[in-house]
Write a structure and sequence with these properties.
Layout (H helix, E strand, L loop, with lengths): L12 H33 L4 H8 L3 H9 L6 H11 L12
Length: about 100
């Protein structure tokens, strides 16, 4: 939100949209990082290597690493494949702690 003190004009729409877009991008980056960290946490709790998980989920090993590091955002289909490989509901991969 933009702080507007009494008597000031509203900021231009382009400035407002830039702030909104920046907030959305930040939230997406956080979600991507959190999902990746959660996948790693669940995988490690099951003593599964990253390479084995990638193979089970039929995902390229390098891509799996990028997802876990939060460098890449997985698609819904990819999350489903990973969840099946981890034998857990996909929703588990969106909560922060076991």
């Amino acid at each position: 939100m933009l702080p507007i003190s009494g008597g000031q004009k509203d900021p231009p729409l382009t400035q407002y949209l830039h702030i909104v877009n920046t907030d959305l991008e930040s939230n997406m980056e956080n979600l991507t990082s959190n999902v990746g960290a959660r996948i790693r946490e669940v995988r490690q709790s099951q003593n599964i290597s990253q390479e084995s998980l990638a193979s089970l989920a039929k995902i390229n090993r390098t891509h799996m690493g990028r997802i876990e590091r939060g460098d890449k955002s997985p698609t819904v289909d990819t999350v489903e494949k990973i969840a099946i490989a981890l034998n857990c509901p996909p929703s588990i991969l969106f909560v922060k702690e076991l």
